[in-house]
Amino acid sequence: MKNGAVIEQQRSKPVKQKKIRDIHHLPPIWNALSHVLIGLFSFSCVYPFLFVVVLSFTDEQTLAQNGYSIFPEKWSLEAYSYIFQTGDQLLRSYGVTIFITVVGTLVSIALVSLYAYAISRSYFHFRGFFSFIAFFTMLFGGGLVPSYIVTTQVLHLKDTIWALILPMSMGAFSILIMRTFFKTTVPDAVIESGKIDGASEFRVFFSLVLPVSLPGLATIGLFSALGYWNDWFNALLYIDNARLLPLQSLLMKVETNIQFILQNSTISNSTERSAIARSLPAETTRMAMVVLATAPIVFAYPFFQRYFVQGLTVGSVKE
Amino acid sequence: MAGLERWLKLVSRNKALLLMVLPGTVWFFFFSYLPMPGAIIAFKDYKFSRDGFLASIIQSEWLGFKNFEFLFKTEDAYIIVRNTLLYNSIFIILGTTLAVTVAIVIHEIANKKMAKIYQTGMFLPHFLSYVIVSYFVFSFLSVDKGVLNQLLQYFGAEPVYWYSETKYWPYILTIVNLWKGVGYGSVVYLAAIVGIDKSYFEAAMIDGASKWQQIRKITIPMIMPIIMIMFILAVGGIFRADFGLFYQVPRDTGALYPVTNVIDTFVYRGLKVTGNIGMSTAAGLYQAVVGLVLVLATNFIIRKINKEQALF
Question: What is the interface pTM, i.e. ipTM, of the complex?
């Protein structure tokens, strides 16, 4: 405070000496340079999305002639109108993605918070053992092939919606974040006082611990939701049925075969269908689908970003 | 007998907490621990049996280290290990340097509102899947419509067939990796910088230190422990490649495999494309074991430097 006041005085005085350095600010040239460099990098991170949005509103013919351009000669809504006409598969995939995101996140929050709470209690006699069970998985795993065989031949999850939910519903990293969170925000003493009042461990957990742990739950819930929304790997491994294809996987399919979006279509008349397939604005429709799959994230993440930051900084601090 | 009784008593006294870890433990059993002994098929000629998983494993013939021998005789073994290690080394070195630089610069920017906006922009790539990123990259590299070839033609140069020329991909993959990760990577360092006691800088200012001197003599040394920890952790994971980056961004193009095939993509293709399950499991197990050794070794080094910072 004191120093700040001193600096204020120095600044307000018309200074004659050549160099009074202000610790809070860079020299103007360096400041400008910082803005330019960081600003450019930041812009380059957002630009591809803007570019794809523009492409999705470009006229298909124009795009075929001029290539991808940020200033298209002719705009068009054709791609979107096609998607809304024929987009049964897209709607289906949207539904799958929303379902696995919501259910998966809820399952994940339940599993992780219960597990993390138990191993955060110092009076839990088997704490060491169960902490080891969780954290050893960060160090070693059987690998992709044995996991695949267990999931398909022991759990029989191939081509079921659960193959998209269960493999991602737990993780040592989320447990680590939640355990740290419970340890720091809910000391044993609070739990003890709850117990003295006669509440059971579960009651204490649900009515005492969870309400004060909402920021922590939001953090792991958002990590989890983002993971589900963006997942294509599990679908690549386990899903062949087009009706269970999540959004990201649909985007992978249409990379090579845009007519895939006519799958599951309600248009049963085959001549009508092939006419649509022929006139489909392939390039712009692809881009429109990318926009529709990305837009929810682009608009939502600025509001949630602090929870991600929190998770990252908590996760990197041990106790 | 008395031991068992004592144990049962402990279980009953902890039964609520044990119930809480039960669902998670079941999950870990099926998704983490059952696959571990399952890795035994790296030493077998795995044949699927109708009688289920256990029967398949037991009935498959033992091969000893044959799968590993086959693996290391192929040229692929060398390529995938080389690619994984080289790419990850470059990513770690450049990624750390850039993330630290960005964190310092963002911290120095006086206009906090602008700094926040820049940071939000830089976060975006982290939140996008590699499928989306692959579309973004394609809009630049497409042979007939891409932005880069338009620019080349504008300057009178020949268009480049990006998806069939291996020589460009080490650069492309590095750029994409940094683009996606630097903004988010800088978060940890920025948090560390914000946590530095302000009186250091004030004392330095009174002594007439320039901003540049302050960064060199205070900021960087103060966040060095964090940099070291993050660096060593990354080295512990150097044997694990980012599957999405190496599979999606080159669009699984066969012509690019020499520079895009890494251990993870090799294992995946062995399982789902070429059907060479034994060799694929062997590669996965090799990766897991070396990975474990690396993490233990790096943790040992951290313990030597600073016990507090060690993971275990």
Answer: 0.91
